[in-house]
Amino acid sequence: MIRLANKNILKIRTYKPGKPIEEVKRELRLKDRVIKMASNENTLSPSRRVLGAIKRKLNDLNRYPDGGCFYLKRAVSTMLRLEPENLIFGNGSDEIIILALKAFTKKGDEVIVARPTFLIYEIASLIQDLKVKVVPLKGFRYDLDKMAEKLSEKTKIVFIANPDNPTGSYVTGKELDCFMKKVGKDTIVFLDEAYYEFAKNMKNYPKSIKYLKAKNVIITRTFSKIYALAGLRVGYGVARKELISAMNKVREPFNVNSLAQAAAVEAVNDNKFVSKTLKLTATGKQYLYKNLESLGYDCVKSATNFILVNLKRNSKLIYRKLLKKGIIVREMSQWGLKGFIRVTIGTMSENKRFIKALKEV
Amino acid sequence: MIRLANKNILKIRTYKPGKPIEEVKRELRLKDRVIKMASNENTLSPSRRVLGAIKRKLNDLNRYPDGGCFYLKRAVSTMLRLEPENLIFGNGSDEIIILALKAFTKKGDEVIVARPTFLIYEIASLIQDLKVKVVPLKGFRYDLDKMAEKLSEKTKIVFIANPDNPTGSYVTGKELDCFMKKVGKDTIVFLDEAYYEFAKNMKNYPKSIKYLKAKNVIITRTFSKIYALAGLRVGYGVARKELISAMNKVREPFNVNSLAQAAAVEAVNDNKFVSKTLKLTATGKQYLYKNLESLGYDCVKSATNFILVNLKRNSKLIYRKLLKKGIIVREMSQWGLKGFIRVTIGTMSENKRFIKALKEV
Fold first, then answer.
1. Scanning every residue of chain B, which has its alpha carbon at the shortest distance from the alpha carbon of A101?
2. Interface contact A231-B43, CB threshold 8 A
3. Rounded Cα–Cα distance for residues B7 and B9 (Å)
4. Are B147 and B177 in contact (CB under 8 A)?
5. Of A41, A347, A337, which Cα lies nearest the Cα of A167?
6. Distances (CA, A) of A71 to A89, A217, B201, B356
7. Chain-chain contact of B259 with A15 (C-beta, under 8 angstroms)
8. Which of B6, B62, B186 sits opposite A45 (nearest CB)?
9. Which of B:267-286 have CB within 8 Å of A?
10. What percent of chain A is predicted at pLDDT more than 70?
11. Which residue of B has its CA nearest to A125?
12. Looking at chain A from residue 175 to 204, which residues have their Cβ under 8 Å from any Cβ of chain B?
């Protein structure tokens, strides 16, 4: 075998996504409707308005996308009251993680991550041959005090998922203010706000954009969750112009496809769809909390569209039994959370089917 | 400013794509139809059959794509008579370049590239802080003998665009056989066959798949050209399983969007569309050769859907004048080819409008 870029690569346990519906149907030969509550997707299909914008672009697919995302940059910068130059778009917001690592880190640099949290921070950092300092969660929440203790001159990036995945918890504005004061000028704080729209009205959820001017902060958000466009791959990073400009240097020229751009431009103005999703999520969350707790399971309080549930027993077995009934949830061993599953809030009928099945298995 | 991963990054001249039609309309306030002959795109929109496959997937866009590209892998491996494990899909075939660099190279390694050729090989290698050895073309063709002379123990990847962009020339099977014999076991030959389908019936065009077993070869092909799906971003790499497996380790889990996968599965079986494109290209090429030569311009003979034209004078001025007439071609200074433009073969009416405009300016 040819030599690899670094020895980490062979050891890396690649990210295992939630099982796709078609795969489950194929493997288990299920003919009934399979429901997926595994990947924190929006359970609603995109709105007709957004699908209309996609359809209008179909005849242009022979052309390369706009590498500069002109219209999308304009739409999002207007929404955020920032300049277009404060934005960079990616093939999903996970690409922004890769671009930040690529632009700002080199072998020997350190990054700080929590555990458990979104796995890509650690995997992507190991691929880049960086030293990863890990800080365990405390009571299912980011422990920013301990993370601050790990800061050193070698720390290049600190990854903070806010709200966190898979716990659904969030750090408050006060906690983040306090942490930011301890961060030096050579360190980037990477705030992954993939679930921002679900969390922004939670008590004391931070207004992170205020950090942009004084600090090296990269905030990411995505069209995969609230906007129901996970399949199209589009997310973005917000930062000072100099940071954005460096990430643009290492970006592939046509990283965001044309349909994603067209859909996202329409989606940011589709307030009706956003409200509908938020309402559905809030109602579903209360229903699931109530029913899961009455079954004796502990739920971590969530600022997102999913719930981490402590089944206190063989979650792998329960996961497989649910799968056979056509319900896909996420079993949490990959995150080191034994006995836990993570369930994405669905439509009310999906939530009910899930609770019913859970009672049976 | 925060320290960058390496000092190359600031110096890199990022890739400048051909101007998008909408940008030209916006900037020059053109109301007439603008035609783009700048980016070697298929001038035809995707077929109804392919657009149908896309439409059938629209309601699932809230779901993440299949990270394993199951159906697309099956379709392409059947077409190529290879195993699905010999394939890796990317967000355009340029992503495969990035994945190969990421999986197999580290600081201090060398790569060999031609000049002028597709610019991304060199840009992406500089971003990775590699040493780039450059071998000039000879008579607008890859000089494989000279490239072989540059091979050393430090050579990790040799990039060969076949056919080449921007010249449209190709290396023959015999030339490639001879080169392969000189390549050591620690070197990867990266054969970029983005224009494969246009070239495969040219005299002595190599059957590159035969090298897979004995050599470290990565072949890339794309859905952006013959299949008219540049806007959706999907391409693939073909290699031995071990090489594919290493690249999969450094790949983002959802790099190819759902619509790209659905469209590509349909496109590989749409022989009618492929034939139509090939016929249009062949007729257009003869028309352009004839008319450009009768105007006194030299054309490099092309195995692709574009032609490199030596205008022998101020190509920047001619480029701008054509632009004002709503015709976008590629001016070649960025490649160091002064006095040259590259023109993509269009429909016959586009070709005629281009020749007419060229006569006028």
1. B5
2. no
3. 5
4. no
5. A337
6. 12, 24, 41, 33
7. no
8. B62
9. none
10. 100
11. B250
12. 185-186, 188
Among candidates A15, A36, A259 on the partner chain, residue whose Cβ is nearest the Cβ of B232: A259
- Does residue B125 have a pLDDT over 90? yes
Q: What is the pLDDT of residues B97-115, one digit of tens each?
A: 999 999 999 999 999 999 9
CA torsion through residues A42, A45, A51, A54, sign: positive
Spans of all domains in chain B: 7-45+272-360, 48-268
Q: Which CA distances in Å does A244 have to A248, A342, A357? A: 6, 34, 47
pLDDT category, A343, cuts 50, 70, 90? very high
Interface test with B, best of A58, A69, A74 (most B CBs within 10 A): A58
Task: Return the exposure string of A214-226: e unless at least 16 CB atoms fall within 10 Å of the residue's CB, then b.
Answer: ebbbbbbbbbbbb
**H or E stretch including A198?**
helix A196-199
pTM: 0.97
CB–CB contact B106 A12 (8 Å): no
Chain A positions touching B231 (Cβ under 8 A) are 57, 60-65, 257-259
Report the C-alpha gap between B333 and A140 in whole angstroms: 57
Q: For residues A182 and B100, give the distance between their C-alpha atoms in angstroms, rounded to a whole number.
A: 38
CA distance A270 to B310: 50
Query: If pLDDT is split at 50, 70 and 90, which confidence band does A37 have?
Result: very high
Assign domain B7-45+272-360 to its CATH architecture: Alpha-Beta Complex (3.90)
Vertex A180, ends A146 and A118: CA angle to 5°? 60
pLDDT score, position B209: 97
Parallel, antiparallel, or unpaired: how do β-strands A188-192 and A217-222 relate?
parallel
Residues 301-340 of B with CB under 8 A from A: none
Q: In CATH, what number does B48-268 get?
A: 3.40.640.10
Residue A13: band (very low, low, confident or very high) from pLDDT cuts 50, 70, 90: confident
Question: Mutation test of the interface with chain A: which of B34, B41, B62, choosing the one with the most A Cβ atoms within 10 A?
Answer: B62
Chain B residues closer than 8 Å to A305 by CB:
none
**Token reading at A146:** 């301990």
Dihedral of alpha carbons A83, A88, A94, A97, sign: negative
Q: What is the pLDDT of residues A225-273, one digit of tens each?
A: 999 999 999 999 999 999 999 999 999 999 999 999 999 999 999 999 9
Q: Output the CA–CA distances (angstroms, integers) from residue A89 to A76, A81, A260, B14, B160, in the order listed.
A: 10, 17, 11, 16, 30
Smallest CA–CA distance, residue B10 to chain A, in Å, is: 7
CA angle B294, B296, B301 (to 5 degrees): 80
Cα–Cα distance measured from residue B138 to residue B115, given in angstroms and rounded to the nearest whole number: 10
Contacts of A275 (CB under 8 A, 6+ apart): none
B64 and A188 within 8 Å at the Cβ level: the answer is: no
Instruction: Answer yes or no: is the ipTM higher than 0.85.
Output: yes
Q: Would you call B257 and A257 a contact, using CB atoms and an 8 Å cutoff?
A: yes
